[in-house]
Write a structure and sequence with these properties.
The complex is a heterodimer of chains A (427) and B (237). Chain A has 13 helices and 2 strands. In chain A, strand 1 and strand 2 form a beta hairpin. With 237 residues, chain B is mostly helical. Chain B has a domain of 84 residues: NADH-ubiquinone/plastoquinone oxidoreductase chain 6, subunit NuoJ (Four Helix Bundle (Hemerythrin (Met), subunit A)), CATH 1.20.120.1200. In chain B, helix 2 runs antiparallel to helix 3 and helix 3 packs antiparallel against helix 4. The relative contact order of chain B is 0.11. Classes of the chains: A mainly alpha (427), B mainly alpha (237). At the A-B interface, helix 3, helix 4, helix 5 and helix 12 of A face helix 3, helix 4, helix 6, helix 8 and helix 9 of B.
C-alpha cells in the first residue's frame, strides 16, 4: 500500500487563497464550479440510465435499449420529451410556492457536492489547487444543513399542489426526514470526534495513508451501517420510499407536476443519491485515498480521482441493489426503526467512541456501562412485554393507548430480531 | 482574514454589499412574516429571515453559528411549524379584522417600543460577555472557531448549558404530559381509529407516543380535510 503523499501537505485549508485573490484564483474558482456542475449533470444522466438498466437486469427484463447504444441516450430523450410537455399548474395550487418548490429541491443537492474532495491537490503555475469546489471550515456541517433544507422542496411541493395524495406524500417525507436527521447527525459527530475537525478535507486526510485508517475501520463498522440506514431514509430511497409509494399515493409529492418542473424533481432525486454516496465515501472510506502506482507518470493526479469514482460507484450500485431487493417499510416500522433503534444505538456508540478517544481505560469503563445499560433496557422491555394489554396493565391507562389483542400482529412471545413490529414495540 | 471587528471598523466594499443584501433579506423576511395572509407564506418568510441571519453570521466569521442557525432553525423548527400548519389545516386566509384579545394592537405597539428601547439602551451601555464594551481583534483562525466555542460552552458556561438542556427536557416531557388523553377517551374511539388505519404497533416511549402514534391519525385528518386545505390565493410571499 503506497501512501498518497500528495494529501499530507494539505493540512492548511484554502491553500489557493494564501497568495491573495487575483484574477487567476477567480478563474480557477469559476472553472471548478462549472466543471463540478457539468460532471454532476453528466453523472445524473448516466445514473438514471444505470439504475434503469441494472434494475432491469435484476428483474430479468431488458430495460431501455432503443435510444443509442444499450439505451444510453434514453435519459436525454426523456429529458427532451419532458421539456416539450405541457406545463400544468393545478387550479387549486398555490402558484408561487408551486413554482418555487422544484428549485428548492435541486439547490441543496448541488450545494452538498461542493464540499466533497474528489482528488488530491494539483499545482498550476505555482498555485496549489484543491480538487474540491470549496473547503469551508464547517464542511460537514454544511452537508447537514443542506440535507435538512432539502425537506422544503418535497414538503412545499406536496402542500402547494392542493391535492391530497401529494399532501400525504409530503407529510410523510417531512416526518421521515426529521426523524432520521438526529441519527444522521449523531453518526457524523462520531466521525468529527475522531478527526478533530469539521473540514471535509481534513476528514479525508486523517483517513490516510492506510486503508485500516479509514473511519470505516477506526470507528468500528457500526457507525457506517447506521449512517447508511439514516442516509437512505433521508434520501427517501427504497426501502424508505414511503414518500412516493406508487401503490398508495399515485406518485407521491410530485403527482401534480409535469414538464420541466417534474424533470427538476427527478434530477434532484438522483443528484442527491450521487452526492450522498460521495459523502459516505468521504466520511467513512477515505475519499480519494488508495494505492497509487508511482511508476506511471502523473498517476498521483488522476489515481485518487479514480479511487474516489470507484468507491462512489460502488455505493450507487448498492442503492440500486437495495431498491431491487427490499420491500418498502410500513410507516410505523419506519418510525420505530428511527426513534427506538437508530437513535439509542448511535448515542451509545458515540459514547464509546468519545471514551476511547479519551483513553483506553475510559473506553473499557464506558463499554461495560453501555453493555450493562443495554442489558437492563432489554430486560425492562422483556418484563414489560404484554403489560399493555387491557387486563394486565400495570400503570393506569391514562394517555396510553391500549391495544386489544386482535390488533397485535405477532404473539408477544415472538423472539424475532430486527426492525419488525413483532419485538418490543408491538405489544 | 481580518478579525471580527476590524472588518466592522473598516468595511471593505464586498463586506458592505454582503451586509446590505443580508440585511435586506432579514428585513424582507420579517415584514413578510407579518404581512402574509397565508400562514405557510409567513413560515417561508421566516426561513428567509433565518437565512439572512446565517449570512450575517458568516460575514462575522462565525461559521459554526451560521451552520447551526440553518440546521436547527430553518431545518428543524420551521419545518415543524409548517408540519403543524399543514396538519391542522389552518393554512387559509385569516380574518384579521377581529383580534383574539381586546386592545391587542395598541398593546403590541407599546410593547414593541419598550423592547426596542431596552435593546438599544443595552447596546449602548452594557458590557457583554467579553467584559468590555466592544472588542477589536481576532478570535483565531476560522478552523478553531468551533473549538473555542465548544471549549467555552463546556467550561466557563457549563452550568448555563446544562440548565438549558434540562429546560428543553422539561419542555418535551411537559408537552407529552399535556398531550395525554383523559382516561375516558382511551376507549373505543381510539381503538377503532387505529384499527382503521392499520397501525398495529403502539409506542412505548414518550418520543414514540408523540410521533408514531400521532402521525397516522393526523394523516387521516389531513386526508379528510384535504379538500378544505387547498392553499388559498396566489399572493407572493
Amino acid at each position: 500500500m503506497i501512501a498518497p503523499a500528495l494529501l499530507s501537505p494539505l493540512l492548511g485549508t484554502e491553500a489557493l487563497f494564501d497568495q491573495g485573490v487575483g484574477w487567476f484564483v477567480l478563474v480557477v474558482v469559476v472553472i471548478k464550479v462549472l466543471v463540478a456542475f457539468a460532471v454532476l449533470m453528466g453523472a445524473v444522466i448516466l445514473m438514471i440510465w444505470f439504475e434503469r438498466k441494472l434494475i432491469s437486469d435484476m428483474q430479468s427484463r431488458i430495460g431501455p435499449n432503443r435510444a443509442g447504444p444499450w439505451g444510453l441516450l434514453q435519459t436525454l430523450a426523456d429529458g427532451i420529451k419532458l421539456f416539450f410537455k405541457e406545463d400544468l399548474i393545478p387550479d387549486q395550487s398555490d402558484r408561487f410556492v408551486f413554482k418555487l418548490a422544484p428549485y428548492l429541491a435541486l439547490l441543496p443537492a448541488l450545494l452538498i457536492f461542493t464540499v466533497v474532495p474528489v482528488g488530491g491537490i494539483i499545482v498550476i503555475s505555482g498555485h496549489p489547487i484543491q480538487l474540491q469546489v470549496a473547503d469551508p471550515p464547517i464542511g460537514i456541517l454544511l452537508v447537514l444543513a443542506m440535507s435538512s433544507i432539502a425537506v422544503y422542496g418535497v414538503m412545499l411541493a406536496g402542500w402547494s399542489s392542493g391535492s391530497k395524495y401529494p399532501l400525504l406524500g409530503s407529510v410523510r417525507a417531512s416526518a421521515q426526514m426529521i426523524s432520521y436527521e438526529a441519527a444522521l447527525g449523531l453518526t457524523v459527530v462520531a466521525v468529527v470526534l475522531i478527526t478533530g475537525s469539521l473540514s471535509t478535507r481534513r476528514i479525508v486526510i486523517s483517513q490516510s495513508p492506510n486503508f485500516w485508517d479509514w473511519n470505516f475501520f477506526r470507528l468500528g463498522v457500526v457507525p457506517f451501517i447506521l449512517f447508511m440506514i439514516a442516509i437512505t431514509a433521508e434520501l427517501t430511497r427504497p426501502p424508505f420510499d414511503l414518500t412516493e409509494a406508487d401503490s398508495e399515493l399515485v406518485g407521491g409529492f410530485n403527482t401534480e407536476y409535469s414538464s420541466l418542473r417534474f424533470a427538476l424533481f427527478y434530477l434532484a432525486e438522483f443528484m442527491n443519491t450521487i452526492t450522498m454516496s460521495a459523502i459516505v465515501v468521504t466520511l467513512f472510506l477515505g475519499g480519494p485515498d488508495g494505492p497509487i502506482p508511482r511508476f506511471i507518470p502523473t498517476s498521483d493526479v488522476w489515481m485518487p480521482i479514480l479511487w474516489f469514482l470507484i468507491k462512489t460507484f460502488a455505493f450507487l450500485f448498492i442503492y440500486v441493489w437495495l431498491r431491487a431487493a427490499l420491500p418498502r417499510l410500513r410507516y410505523d416500522q419506519l418510525m420505530d426503526l428511527g426513534w427506538k433503534r437508530l437513535i439509542p444505538f448511535t448515542l451509545a456508540w458515540l459514547l464509546l467512541v468519545a471514551a476511547f478517544v479519551l483513553s483506553g481505560w475510559w473506553g473499557l469503563g464506558i463499554a461495560l456501562a453501555v453493555v450493562a445499560a443495554g442489558f437492563l433496557l432489554t430486560r425492562a422491555f422483556a418484563v414489560g412485554q404484554g403489560r399493555e394489554d387491557l387486563d394486565q396493565a400495570v400503570l393506569p391507562p391514562i394517555g396510553r393507548r391500549v391495544l386489544p389483542p386482535q390488533l397485535l400482529r405477532t404473539p408477544p412471545t415472538a423472539g424475532d430480531v430486527g426492525p419488525g413490529p413483532g419485538s418490543e414495540g408491538a405489544s | 482574514m481580518s478579525g471580527i471587528l476590524t472588518a466592522a471598523v473598516h468595511p471593505t466594499i464586498p463586506d458592505l454589499i454582503t451586509f446590505i443584501v443580508a440585511g435586506l433579506m432579514v428585513l424582507a423576511g420579517a415584514v413578510g412574516v407579518i404581512l402574509s395572509r397565508n400562514p405557510v407564506h409567513s413560515a417561508l418568510s421566516l426561513v428567509l429571515t433565518l437565512f439572512g441571519i446565517a449570512v450575517l453570521f458568516i460575514a462575522q466569521q462565525a461559521e459554526f453559528l451560521a451552520a447551526v442557525q440553518v440546521i436547527v432553525y430553518a431545518g428543524a423548527i420551521v419545518v415543524l411549524f409548517l408540519f403543524v400548519i399543514m396538519f391542522l389545516g389552518v393554512d387559509k386566509r385569516e380574518n384579521i379584522e377581529s383580534d383574539p384579545l381586546r386592545g391587542q394592537r395598541p398593546l403590541a405597539v407599546v410593547l414593541m417600543v419598550v423592547v426596542l428601547a431596552a435593546v438599544i439602551a443595552l447596546g449602548v451601555n452594557a458590557h457583554w460577555a467579553t467584559g468590555v464594551h466592544h472588542l477589536v481583534g481576532r478570535t483565531g483562525t476560522p478552523a478553531s472557531n468551533t473549538a473555542r466555542l465548544g471549549r467555552s460552552v463546556f467550561t466557563t458556561y457549563l452550568f448555563a448549558f446544562e440548565a438549558t438542556a434540562g429546560l428543553l427536557v422539561i419542555a418535551v416531557v411537559g408537552a407529552v404530559v399535556l398531550a395525554r388523553r383523559p382516561p375516558e377517551s382511551t376507549g373505543e374511539a381510539d381503538l377503532e381509529e387505529s384499527e382503521a388505519l392499520g397501525t398495529g404497533s403502539d409506542a412505548d416511549g414518550e418520543l414514540g407516543d408523540g410521533s408514531a402514534a400521532a402521525l397516522p391519525e393526523a394523516a387521516a385528518a389531513a386526508d379528510e380535510s384535504a379538500e378544505g386545505m387547498a392553499p388559498a390565493g396566489s399572493e407572493p410571499a
